[in-house]
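User: Sequence recovery, please. Input:
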């Protein structure tokens, strides 16, 4: 059974996936959360923008930790990082 984790440590049985959206970006769930929350932020004005920026900073910290853990766990991850973008396909 899968469960949500606050700490971005890969699960014991987690495997590197390079298919589908993962062939283009490494963190599609974080990208989706940021995109969805951006819709809220646009409607909420400057308070929404500040909250969105805070969310971005938290997710950037989490993805850096996650990438470090994956790199230590799977030797293929460094190559995967060179071939894919973090959050925006073809951009970043």
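Assistant: Recovered sequence (92 residues):
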């Amino acid at each position: 059974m899968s469960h949500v984790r606050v700490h971005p440590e890969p699960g014991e049985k987690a495997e590197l996936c390079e298919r589908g959206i993962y062939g283009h970006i490494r963190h599609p769930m974080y990208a989706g959360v940021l995109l969805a929350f951006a819709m809220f932020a646009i409607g909420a004005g400057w308070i929404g923008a500040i909250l969105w920026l805070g969310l971005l900073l938290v997710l950037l910290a989490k993805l850096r930790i996650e990438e470090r853990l994956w790199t230590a766990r799977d030797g293929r991850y460094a190559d995967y990082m060179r071939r894919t973008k973090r959050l925006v396909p073809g951009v970043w």
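The CA atoms of residues 50 and 61 lie 17 Å apart.
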